[in-house]
Design brief:
mainly alpha
């Protein structure tokens, strides 16, 4: 599983939770600056990502990730580690 496969699905999850148009998200989009972002919604996003990819993201990763691309890369790494 690579970033090209994961990115559209994560974009869909984020946009679904935040009720945003997927066209608003680019790889360099700062997630904390998206309209409607609040801590409970971030937790929903992370929970859905973890369930979708059968991974557990470290809290430090979740709170330190800034962009969509960084989140995608962390999911790819976690998925690779989970299937290794």
């Amino acid at each position: 599983m690579n970033a090209e496969q994961v990115s559209p699905e994560i974009t869909e999850i984020i946009c679904g939770v935040l009720e945003l148009d997927p066209g608003l998200l680019q790889a360099s989009t700062l997630l904390r600056e998206l309209p409607g972002v609040e801590s409970i919604k971030v937790l929903r996003i992370i929970t859905r990502i973890e369930a979708r990819y059968a991974v557990e993201l470290d809290e430090q990763v979740v709170f330190n990730v800034g962009t969509l691309d960084e989140l995608v890369q962390e999911v790819v790494k976690a998925r690779a580690a989970a299937t290794a």
